[in-house]
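Notes from hallway chat w/ T.B., transcribed later so I don't forget. T.B. wanted the structure written out for a chain they're using in a teaching module, and asked if we could keep both sequence and structure tokens in one place. Agreed to drop them here.
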Amino acid sequence: MIEAQVLQLKAILKAIDKMDQAIKDKYRRLDDPVIFELLPGARPQLAPRLLVAFGSRHERFELTEDIQKYASVAPVIEQSGKKK
């Protein structure tokens, strides 16, 4: 059973490597990588993910609040009676 699982894991790891390489290749062909690479600590793993999260259409998120709302991390004001 363990031998079968090891073979499956090897196949999965190989597929992950291929997908990672495809992501890197596509990322390098886009216009905006430099924006995300300049962020401290963003590269090489986080920069492609940030580009995917923000997208290449800059008009999509005009304000910082727009991306916060999209990611569901925008501050929410809770109110009850006279307390806020």
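Follow-up for T.B.: The chain has one domain: 2-70. Might be a good example for the class.
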